[in-house]
Amino acid sequence: MNMTLLSKDLVSLEYREQLQRDLARASVCRFLIAFISNDGMESIGRHLLNRVLRDDRSFGLGSLSCSCGYEPLLRMQSELPDLRLKYFMDPLVKEDGEPSEISLFHSKLVYLWLEREGKSVVYIGSHNWSRRALGPQGPSVRLWSGREVQIYDFEFPTQFADSSQIDGSVRPKYQFHLEVERVVLPATGSFSQMPDYVWSPESFSVAASRDAARMEETPGYYVEPEREQQILDCLSDVLFVQAANAKVLPYSSADRMKVGRRVSTHPLHETFLGPEWQETHLRDEYYERSLPGSLVAELDSQRALDFDDVGEEESEELARLQRVFTAPIDRLVEAWGEAAKLLKQNRRSGDREFEE
User: Fold this and answer.
1) Minimal CA–CA distance to 156: which of 35, 11, 43, 69?
2) Are 290 and 261 in contact (CB under 8 A)?
3) Rg for the chain (alpha carbons), in Å?
4) Which among 13, 331, 34 has a CA at the least distance from the CA of 197?
5) Pseudo-torsion of CA 28, 33, 37, 43, nearest 10°?
6) Count of CB atoms within 10 A of residue 112's CB?
7) Is residue 99 within 8 Å of 93, Cβ to Cβ?
8) Could you tell me which of 51, 164, 181, 175 has the C-alpha nearest to residue 112?
């Protein structure tokens, strides 16, 4: 028996492509999939499913609690000669502390019989048959830099704001992954009530690896430009010390705003730092407000770019799933909490001034 890991991600183009190849060779298909949408079946290939489900040894089950409705399997069933597909009432959960009503149906299993090759293929894992779960194929967004970005959009079995239409009084066994402990909102947003955490652009940056960010160091000690030349002349003409042999030299042209920061270039920064941040006053404010030793974005890499020509050169698409390095989460949460407290104080002060 051979086992292959198709994807570590929650969405997978590899899963869909391999399933399509195996369906094209299969004589029998039996599946148990929680959530099935019309778009998902189209993505896999309706013709592939239609052909293999015509075999009287094939069948398929979907969840009765599926938020995609009953149309996907009903439509496919209408194209088949005999009964092959059903929606399944979710089973009772008989464990200590579990509810006595129905629970969310979570299974995802596909069995294929490749009769000509004399072998079976079994798919297990967490991939539903919905368009989003089967890989990045929805519309992408083009950033100001010309880069295409795949939209990250999760498909949950309920509306985005209310799960009571499915859950009712039930505590779903697999609902724990939807719990939210902290929400961090942009500091520039408008709030009906003040949040506990807010973030500003200089407080969060990422790097592709631990070593991808460079530390901006000083080449010596800062002086004004005319003083720099005087010191250099004194070293060479009076003390007879060549600049190349000096251990410490004056400087006047280094970027003092970046000194002591870890500077990173990453395409993810383009999603929340637009071209306006490369204007001198915003750029200097960004670095000045960042903390010494913190990870910051490189804003100077495209300062010379003519934005009328943005997009002419093909940029690598930014995938929806990114593995990046950033500051420790406890440090970020602490900074965002302090930023929220400061924002509350400033707004209270502003309200008092307005009242006066």
Assistant:
1) 35
2) yes
3) 29
4) 331
5) -50
6) 22
7) yes
8) 51
Instruction: Supply the mean pLDDT for the chain.
Output: 77
Spatial distance between the Cα atoms of 107 and 34, rounded to a whole number of angstroms: 6
Nearest to 297 by CA among 266, 325, 275, 260: 266
Distance CA 133, CA 329 (A): 28
Residues 179-225: pLDDT tens digits? 456 778 888 777 667 788 889 999 999 999 888 998 887 777 778 88
Strand locations in the chain (E): 28-33, 59-63, 85-88, 108-114, 119-124, 140-142, 148-150, 185-186, 198-199, 214-215, 220-222, 249-251, 262-264, 295-297
Asked if residues 287 and 296 have their Cβ atoms less than 8 Å apart, the reply is yes
Q: Could you give the CA distance from residue 75 to residue 65 in angstroms, rounded to a whole number?
A: 17
22 and 121 Cβ atoms separated by less than 8 Å: yes
- What is the rounded distance in angstroms from the CA atom of residue 213 to the CA atom of residue 179? 33
Residue 96, SS3 per DSSP: coil
Which helix (H) or strand (E) element contains residue 300? none
Quick count: other Cβ atoms within 10 Å of Cβ 83? 9
Q: What is the pLDDT of residues 238-260, one digit of tens each?
A: 888 887 788 787 877 656 778 88
φ, ψ for residue 5 (rounded to 5)? -85, 115
Residue 245 neighbours by CB under 8 Å, 6+ apart: none
- What is the per-residue pLDDT for 173? 39
